[in-house]
Amino acid sequence: MAELAGIVIALIDEVVKKYREVKILKKECKEARDIAQSVEEVTLSILETIRQEGAHTLPPGLGTPLNHFRDGLKEINEVLCLCASDKAKDKTKVLIFTKTYSTKLRAAISKIKGGLELLSGSHAATSFEFQNYARKAMERANETLENLPDQIRDIVADEIKAALNNSKISPEPFLDKLVQHNFANDTADAKRQLQELQHERESLLADKLFADKELLEKVCNLSLLDIHEMPPPTPPPSSSKLGQPPSEFICPITRDLMEDPVTLFTESHQSYERTALEKFLDQHPCRDPMTNVDSLEPLIFGTNKHLKSKIELWKAEHVSFLSKPPIDLDIATIARRLGAATDSETRLNMALALHDACDNRDMPNKVTARVCGTIDPLVKMLNNNDGREAEVAAKTLLKLSREDDNQIAIANAG
């Protein structure tokens, strides 16, 4: 409908306005704004096509591209809001977080590019001017994707993270680089920011009880300083216990026996339960759940019929195992009980169970914990007068914050 095209135009206006308030990552945000403006010409051409034909609905082949534009523009606007936030004043601290923002922008622009590709092959709009707008916008999107993120800046961020996390490494050599990449006004400003980060980190590490009112912000800040590229989680070994399913039959996200296994087309070629992987890719379309590495394009997967046959055969031979109730609580059960808990003991037990389930190498469980809604009840525990609840909630949130999108969710919940 013409209404959808109108929504896209309104989102473009929001992006352009929000860009004026951006405080950091101005180069990347400008690229995203320019992509939005190039899409505006295409969308206006679509509206003109509708007006000329006097139609109340979109011609066939135009609805899906507009949905791509809408979704991509929403994500661009979210990143611009983060880059325009007052929390973005401390540029060096944000430098440590820039890879996440760049990844989100890349995914958003990829969605817009996908819509433009659909338009290029569409026969719904035949005007030469329309096709020319679409081609130019797609070329612009391709060029932008090649330039994002700034790899040199990411290297600087990784070096600073390493220095902040290792007292034997001095961050002094990076002062000039901070100035060079516009994250400090001069070397004195760069030195001041680094000293503040080091002091904040030392104070946070000494604060074992996490008991003051600014706790949530401190937990988020500590997680920014502590982020490392997580190594791939070690898959559970094939069980030697009689009747236990082999590890290849277990989904790394749900930790349960798979019913409908699909294989992700990445280097790992890991298989997952279809519904669990679909939910994960809805949140992270370019990210491998096992390695936590983002690709340049959205990931795809396919049914693993061979594995499904092996699982069905195993199930037929192990009916007794399938009839046994699970001993360990899964993340969804923990989340449900945590959210419904009315007494302190249940809240503590569920928060501790979640803490144990989300060890430092278990990235999929951290994602599942957020998707299942554990962050809001943990933040409420954090603000309780009960010191024990606040301590356990803080430690659990700190573990969850090792995943980038969890950091944003924790900050928003606070």
Automatic annotation (TrEMBL):
Pfam annotation, one family: U-box
GO biological process entries: cell surface receptor signaling pathway; protein ubiquitination
Highest taxon of source: Eukaryota
Region (Disordered): 227-246
Reaction it catalyzes: S-ubiquitinyl-[E2 ubiquitin-conjugating enzyme]-L-cysteine + [acceptor protein]-L-lysine = [E2 ubiquitin-conjugating enzyme]-L-cysteine + N(6)-ubiquitinyl-[acceptor protein]-L-lysine
Coiled coil: 187-214
InterPro entries according to UniProt: Adaptor_Cbl_N_dom_sf, ARM-like, ARM-type_fold, Armadillo, U-box_domain_protein, Ubox_domain, Znf_RING/FYVE/PHD
Record GO terms (molecular function): ubiquitin protein ligase activity
Domain U-box: 244-321
Keyword Glycoprotein: no
Keywords: Coiled coil
ARM repeats, residue ranges: 373-414
E.C. code: 2.3.2.27
PANTHER family reported for this sequence: RING-TYPE E3 UBIQUITIN TRANSFERASE, U-BOX DOMAIN-CONTAINING PROTEIN
Record's protein name: RING-type E3 ubiquitin transferase
